Structure formats: structure tokens, C-alpha cells
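Hello,

I think I submitted the guanine job twice by accident. Can you confirm which output corresponds to this input? Input:
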Amino acid sequence: TKKQDVLVRGQILHYLTDPGPGDDPAAWEYFDDGALWIVDGHVQSVGPWAVVTANLAPQVREAASFHDHRGKLVLPGLVDTHIHYPQAGVIGSFGRQLLDWLNDYTFPAEARFADYSEAERSAAFVVDRLLAHGTTTASVFATVHAHSVDAFFSAAEAKGLRMLCGKVLMDRHCPDNLRDSAASGRADSQALIERWHGRGRLGYSLTPRFAPTSTREQLQATGELFQARPDLHLQTHLAENPAEIAWVQALFPERSSYLDVYAHYGLLGPRSIYGHCIHLSPAERADMAAAGAAAAFCPTSNLFLGSGFFDYAASTAAGMRVGLATDVGGGTSFSLIRTLGQAYAISQTHATPLSPMRGWYLATLGGARALYLEAHIGNFQPGHEADFVVLDWAATPELAWRMDRTQTLAERLFALMILGDERCVVATHVMGERV
Ligand code: GUN
Ligand code: ZN
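Support: Only one job matched these inputs. Its output is below.
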């Protein structure tokens, strides 16, 4: 059945491309009194209110669902390019860096997903919280249990979300109750692909946890599947922490780098998304860019776990696709607005600070591009799926005070990125409809 037409009035910002380090103004469109006209869940037109509405017959307009958000910022739905839904319950676990954090907190939490009801309750909670934070698409790690993917995709499907998810593949260096095998991991992944991939807006992402927890045999089997199915995604972790990197070197002495492990087994290519990518050489960045692989920049996680400072400027200058990510539960918030603030802080440790014009690109179209979903989401080009978020510039007294003292759009967008958070989210819409 056709959805009701939707008309939105507000301050509309969306991106046509990456503004780049020079903030190219041709990269975005901003309509201070804008209209977004949505037919059957897809963008029909966007532009100045007067122009868009002049083209609407009165009876068509009257039949539409109208959302008056004048004075509020309307953006494409935020895109979280790397999150672990089973880790909502370990956010804020004290005192460990990556490898100890996994052993002490994360693996025990994931082991509880052997119980389907834990997976179901967590999936419902996380989908609800993503939407409350303005995130409409994410690339999601489940656990090693196949049914953890069923739980997540069921919850996402019920809300009509465009989501990527996959069962974690992990056949060594982990607790017995979280270990699969090369054969079972492959069979489970294949069954989940059959069940879920391409159903509605859902897509399957092959999910080897990271090189240390998969045997060569498992990496090989996963690479074969990925190479045979260019419609699938693949997600894993890369170069997050010095101890992790040293471990990979010890486990794969025959490979020239951490990235080379993935490249060798056929896990590097378009639609592969690597979390973190902090400690990479220029050659590894160039190889990722040439392969069309993407990095998920996870600032709150990188600070919380003491992992290091991702070099956004160098990564994008090398031609890599980069998306923004919370990495909950290494990350400390579901909010991509807070995450942008921390991305800025990290960018200050390198040569080029992350500008607001580029920051909001990163949280929207940049994420869609990192996930190779820009044909469907990420901006308001006609035909795109109408997922969007409405933000209140003045959701807190501090924001209101600061906004009163700004002159330009860039200043306001920057203040929002630094002072803003989920309190700014007024409404989240999926395929036009408010959720
Ligand atoms: N590397 C391997 N597994 C994980 C994980 O769950 N979180 C993070 N941040 N890094 C990882
Ligand atoms: Zn992660």
C-alpha cells in the first residue's frame, strides 16, 4: 500500500558531495525556509518552501501529512557505520584497554546472547535508542550466535529501517562459549544471508571480528564468500590498538601488515568497512583507498579505550571512504552529535580541524558513502529514501545562549556539533513517517 504523502517545512541541510578540507560550498544545499516533499516514502523534491509548494496542487497538499519544523534543522538520517548492538550493556566499563576490555567485559556480555530473549530485548532497546538519537541506518555487529542476527533484523524490519548486520565469526582466541568454527561460521552466515539479505531494506554484512580471533581457514572461507557475492558487505576491525597490532604481527608473521592479512584472504574491497584504522601507514591508507574500502571513525571509543587518534585529514586526503561511528560499547554514547564533537577534538591533534560543514557531511552522506548506500540514503536527492532527523538548535540553555551569539550557518552548525546531543532530536522519520 502506498504511504501518505509527507510535507516538511524547516531549515533543510543536505549534501551532494564531500565539501573536502576547503569547505566547497557547491557540496551542500541549505534552505533556510525549506520544504521536503515525500511521496510513498521517497523524496520527490526539496528546495525553498515557496518553490516546492508552488508546484503542489492544493488538494494534493491538503491530503499530505504536514510537519511544521520552522526554525529547526532538518538533516538526512544520521548514519552509524560501526556499532555492536550486544554491547549496550557494557558502555562505561572501567579501566581497560582493548584486549583486556574484550576479555573482562565484552565477551561475558556477548556470551549471554546464547539466550535468545537477551538478544531480543537488547535488539529492541538498541533500535529504539538509535532512533531516539536520530540514527536511521547503522552497520551492526551481532554476536557469534546466529539468532542474535535474527533478533536484530527482526527489530529493524519492524521499524522499516535500512540496516546492515552480521553474525560475528570467531573461531579462536576467545571463550569456548563464543567460538564457532570455519565450517559452522560459514554455514550460519549462508543461512542468515538466505533468510535476511535483501529482505526489505536489510543487508547482510560478513563479520569476522578481527584477525586475531579467526583462523586462516576462517578468514579464507569468509573471503571466498565475500568475493563470490559482491552484493554483500563485510565489517571487521583494523589497527585500533598497539597491543592488538603486535599480536596480529605475531600471529601472521608471513603478512607484510595488518591490512595485508585482510587483503590476502580476500576481505578487502568495496563494501568492506573497517572499524578504527588508527595506526595505519601511508601505504596502508593508499591500499584501502585503491580497494574502495572504508574506515569507521569511532572517536568516543578511541578516547575511552585509549586507542589513539584517527587521522581523518590524512585518511580522506589519501582517498579513503570514511564514516562516523559510535562503536558502542567501546564508544560511550549512541549520539552521533556527541560523536562529532569528539571527532573534532581528535582532529585538533592533527593538522586540519574537522570543520562543521564537513562534520555534518561525515554524519550523513559520508556515512552513506562509506557503506555504499548513497544510492538509497544520505541526502535528499529525488528518489532517495526519506529518512530524516529534525534537530532543535536551542535544546539546552547553553545551546540557546550560544546560538543567540552566532552570525553564520557554519558557526551554528559548529556550536551544535560541540554542545549538541540527543536532547536536540525533536523527531526522527523513516521513509517519511515519524517513528
Ligand atoms: N576489536 C575486536 N572486537 C572488538 C570490539 O568488540 N570492540 C572494539 N572496539 N574493538 C574490537
Ligand atoms: Zn567495534
